[in-house]
């Protein structure tokens, strides 16, 4: 009996101390670099990302312009660095905003009783049945194309997903014995929500948010690419891919550089989110 | 000791009924259950799995809404009682849950967990007073101030149940409702936790409602016992009567299932326990 119990205890300890796989480490590292770029990128530009010099247009990568120049002679590296802020922070803000609204709505549904819950969640289901891109495109166009519209559009399209995840977790947490213990003590609904339910229901939302930042980068770029997001001449990766697409056969670097950055960003956040989700296995209790 | 059930009951249930399921397939988990507990008395509730013991307790403490019946606290029906009475009920009737692994919020420290009731009922004037009271209760249950800042995951099952008991005692209850408080624990610590509960009951003069599977434990611990089967109370009375002269077939079958490792020792122990109860 005792040996069986001991054998059972050992893997649990190991699991919590499990080493992080190398792919996950690369993903985390890339995310850190990207976040640093989002903050510092515009300060690191070797050239002015907006200075037009037609005499230098469409130059291939060289010592002077490490990643070449675009159709207006602007330095691609500088524009890519400057664009990091709009592209990454835009996606981050969109996801953070959507997660925040989702959590808020889920909390209201949880506290509000059956009617409120049914109405709110039905609304989320309907919104979720529309493709995010279509929805975001509609909102962005309606608001007038700009980076800000793109961010708002994504918040509008994305919060119901977060609301549903948060609501599902809250539904289980609110029936857990520690919440019942607080109810027996006479805790108010607000206390139950703020002290017990919310702190224990957000793991899934955090993981989902990390996963979605990757997708958000793609949608942001997509919105800019089709002209519903950041407008020329502003440096934003999606818009850069679009302007470069005209020269894809003669000057590939104009599109490929921001395109690669978008891909790397999407992958790094998606892999990090996935890794977080796996580490967040119910067995591993978090403080 | 005079049998404590002779006072006015501090907690009383009258005709509690609770059904589950859809319109077609309803099961009466609790069917017309009544009982009362006097201050300082221990009432045991026994019955097979699914007989409605937990649901009865949950109706009493308000975690479950009863379809019919009512709960009286200090002689006053809770439904329609004024705010003050309800608040007093929330403070003076506390519960210890079965599984201490899920009954403690994993993101709260021991100080927050044990002190929560003090906040809810505004029982601490200051942070220091609150902490002092938390430490006082922790010491009562055999822990100390060193655990204040630790999280539940770093404790064993027995320690967690002590923390859960401390949480219940912190607000100064007069009734403790326990739903199989040791059945989720290691056999080696069950006795310790039972003894702790008994000690607290005697020291603080608590009335206790104690649900258990272990009939031997109930006989050892309780003044009265209520036997439930499929939601119905089949037998009810002082422990000695019910255990020694069971009237109902179901009770007899339950008693027959008690393992008696050594009949002679068991009989001796029972006699000693009875003598102790009479003289104490
Ligand atoms: N929330 C619920 N929904 C549906 N049925 C329920 C619910 N809670 C309890 N029941 C049913 O009510 C009956 C009584 O359950 P209860 O948990 O009160 O039994 P118990 O005596 O505590 O059993 P155990 O000894 O296993 O803890 C069971 O048939 C159970 O399936
Ligand atoms: Mg039960």
What does this structure look like?
The complex is a heterodimer of chains A (287) and B (280). Chain A has 287 residues and is mostly helical. In chain A, 71% of the residues lie in helices and 0% in strands. The longest helix of chain A has 36 residues, at 76-111. With 280 residues, chain B is an alpha/beta fold. Chain B has 2 domains: 11-103 and 173-245, P-loop containing nucleotide triphosphate hydrolases (Rossmann fold), CATH 3.40.50.300; 247-280, no CATH class. Chain B contains 10 helices and 10 strands. Chain B has helices at 53-61, 83-92, 110-120, 127-140, 157-170, 187-204, 215-221, 239-244, 249-256, 263-279, and strands at residues 11-20, 27-37, 42-46, 68-73, 76-77, 93-96, 175-179, 207-211, 224-229, 232-238. In chain B, a hairpin with a 2-residue loop joins strand 9 and strand 10 (232-238). Chain B is globular. The termini of chain B are close together. In chain B, 41% of the residues are buried. The mean pLDDT of chain B is 90. The chains are: A mainly alpha (287), B alpha/beta (280). The interface between A and B is medium-sized, with 20 and 28 residues. The complex binds adenosine-5'-triphosphate and magnesium ion (MG). Residues 53-54, 179 of chain B line the site of magnesium ion.
Structural class of chain B: alpha/beta
What fraction, in percent, of the residue positions of chain B are helical?
A: 40-55%
Number of separate helices of chain B: 10
Low-confidence stretches of chain B: none
Explain the layout of strands and helices.
The complex is a heterodimer of chains A (287) and B (280).
Chain A: H1 2-16, H2 22-40, H3 76-111, H4 114-128, H5 132-143, H6 147-173, H7 177-184, H8 189-201, H9 203-225, H10 237-244, H11 253-279
Helix pairs in contact in A: 2-3, 2-11, 3-4, 3-6, 3-9, 3-11, 4-6, 5-6, 6-8, 6-9, 9-10, 9-11, 10-11
Chain B: E1 11-20, E2 27-37, E3 42-46, H1 53-61, E4 68-73, E5 76-77, H2 83-92, E6 93-96, H3 110-120, H4 127-140, H5 157-170, E7 175-179, H6 187-204, E8 207-211, H7 215-221, E9 224-229, E10 232-238, H8 239-244, H9 249-256, H10 263-279
Parallel strand pairs in B: 3-8, 3-9, 6-7, 7-8
Antiparallel strand pairs in B: 1-2, 1-4, 4-5, 9-10
Helix pairs in contact in B: 3-4, 3-5, 4-5, 5-6
The complex binds adenosine-5'-triphosphate and magnesium ion (MG).
């Amino acid at each position: 009996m005792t040996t069986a119990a001991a054998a059972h205890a050992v893997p649990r300890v190991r699991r919590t101390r499990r080493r992080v796989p190398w792919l996950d480490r690369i993903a985390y590292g890339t995310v850190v670099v990207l976040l640093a770029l989002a903050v510092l990128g515009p300060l690191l530009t070797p050239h002015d990302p907006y200075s037009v010099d037609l005499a230098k247009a469409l130059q291939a990568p060289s010592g002077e312009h490490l990643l070449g120049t675009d159709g207006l002679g602007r330095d691609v590296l500088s524009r890519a660095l400057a664009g990091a802020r709009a592209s990454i922070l835009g996606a981050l803000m969109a996801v953070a905003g959507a997660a925040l609204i989702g959590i808020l709505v889920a909390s209201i549904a949880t506290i509000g009783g059956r009617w409120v819950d049914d109405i709110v969640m039905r609304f989320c289901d309907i919104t979720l049945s529309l493709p995010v891109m279509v929805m975001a495109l509609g909102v962005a166009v309606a608001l007038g194309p700009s980076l800000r519209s793109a961010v708002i559009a994504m918040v509008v399209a994305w919060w119901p997903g977060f609301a549903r995840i948060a609501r599902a977790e809250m539904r289980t947490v609110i029936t857990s014995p520690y919440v019942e213990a607080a109810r027996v003590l006479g805790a108010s609904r607000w206390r139950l929500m703020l002290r017990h339910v919310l702190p224990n229901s957000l793991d899934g939302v955090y993981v989902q948010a990390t996963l979605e930042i990757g997708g958000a980068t793609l949608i942001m770029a997509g919105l800019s690419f089709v002209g519903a997001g950041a407008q020329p001449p502003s440096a934003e990766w999606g818009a850069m891919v679009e302007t470069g697409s005209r020269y894809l056969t003669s000057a590939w670097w104009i599109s490929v550089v921001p395109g690669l950055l978008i891909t790397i960003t999407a992958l790094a956040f998606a892999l990090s989110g996935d890794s977080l989700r796996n580490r967040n296995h119910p067995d591993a209790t978090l403080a | 000791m005079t049998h404590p059930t002779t006072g006015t009951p501090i907690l009383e249930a009258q005709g509690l009924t609770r059904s589950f399921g859809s319109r077609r397939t309803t099961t009466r988990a609790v069917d017309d259950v009544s009982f009362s507990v006097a201050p300082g008395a221990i009432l045991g509730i026994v019955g097979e799995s699914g007989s409605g013991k937990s649901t009865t307790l949950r109706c009493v403490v308000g975690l479950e809404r009863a379809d019919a019946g009512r709960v009286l606290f200090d002689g006053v029906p809770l439904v329609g009682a004024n705010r003050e009475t309800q608040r007093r009920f929330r403070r003076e009737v506390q519960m210890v849950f079965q599984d201490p692994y899920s009954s403690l919020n994993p993101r709260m420290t021991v100080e927050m967990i044990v002190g929560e009731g003090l906040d809810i009922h505004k029982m601490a004037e200051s942070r220091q007073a609150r902490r002092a009271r938390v430490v006082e209760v922790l010491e009562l249950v055999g822990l100390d101030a060193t655990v204040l800042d630790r999280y539940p995951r770093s404790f064993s099952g027995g320690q967690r149940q002590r923390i859960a008991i401390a949480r219940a005692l912190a607000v100064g209850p007069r009734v403790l409702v326990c739903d199989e408080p040791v059945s989720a624990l290691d056999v080696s610590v069950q006795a310790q936790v039972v003894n702790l509960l008994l000690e607290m009951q005697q020291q603080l003069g608590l009335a206790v409602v104690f649900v258990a599977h272990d009939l031997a434990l109930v006989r050892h611990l309780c003044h009265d016992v209520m036997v439930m089967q499929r939601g119905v109370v089949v037998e009810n009375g002082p422990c000695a009567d019910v255990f020694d002269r069971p009237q109902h077939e179901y009770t007899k079958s339950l008693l027959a299932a008690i393992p008696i490792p050594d009949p002679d020792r068991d009989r001796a122990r029972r006699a000693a326990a009875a003598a102790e109860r009479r003289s104490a």
